[in-house]
Amino acid sequence: MDGRMNVKGRKHPRPLGWRLKLAVAASLAVAMLAGCGQSIPSRTVENYFPLAMGNRWCWVQATEPADSLVFEIDSSYVMDGITFYRYPDPSGFFDGFWLVHWNGELRAYIGSPTDTSSREYTVLLKEPFDVGASWQPPNDSEETLRIIDRDVTLTVPAGTFKHCLQVESNVQGTYYYAPGVGWAAFPDTDEWVLLSYVTK
Fold first, then answer.
1. Residue 154 in contact with residue 184, Cβ under 8 Å?
2. Any idea what DSSP says for residue 16?
């Protein structure tokens, strides 16, 4: 019927039922696309802890909100095509820590990356982020980190973050990594939660 021509040379309009089906299908497609915009994030260390000059995080203690801790990436260094990012040690004990995305790992180095005589580092995150996956930082046989959950919704002063990674250390406690943000909460003598952040 749709292909027949009327006397004026125009096609007959399609039945209303066909148009209704098309509208329903389009609505479902829009809903699915909208859902994709809120889908599970990329499971990479780059997404769970973005590194760039000027990235800044401010945390407060959960029980003592007046106490704050600020990390800001203040310099970078490229070596063998890999970029290391520095943030000062708030305690002043070390010159600073250098973070780097390295072969599916988020590494934190103590001291300058140019110091090839002593490259002490720890592995904060390690792909793949499968629940139950675990790893041990180099030169530390006591600590084991494990992926507990990778779809946590966490509310902190900086906002509500979905699809967070929950990583548990048998020595330190529990860390939460928010996609596109970094640490949303991490342990110390008390739990620190994210107050504000700037990431690129």
1. yes
2. H
Q: Sketch the domain layout of the chain as residue ranges.
A: 1-39, 45-198
Which residues make beta-bridge pairs with 146?
A: 134, 168
pLDDT score at 40: 67
Residue 103: partners with Cβ closer than 8 Å, 6 or more residues away:
none
Amino acid of residue 67 = D
Residue spans of alpha helices (H) in 98-193: none
The two tokens of residue 176 are 């939460």
CB atoms within 10 A of CB 100: 21
Q: Residue 28: is its pLDDT beyond 60?
A: no
| Start-to-end Cα distance in the chain | 56
3-state class (DSSP) for residue 154: strand
In the DSSP assignment, the letter for residue 11 is B
Q: If 0-12 CB within 10 Å is exposed, 13-18 middle and 19+ buried, where does residue 191 land?
A: middle
What does pTM read for this prediction? 0.76
Q: What gap in Å lies between CA 132 and CA 143, rounded to an integer?
A: 15
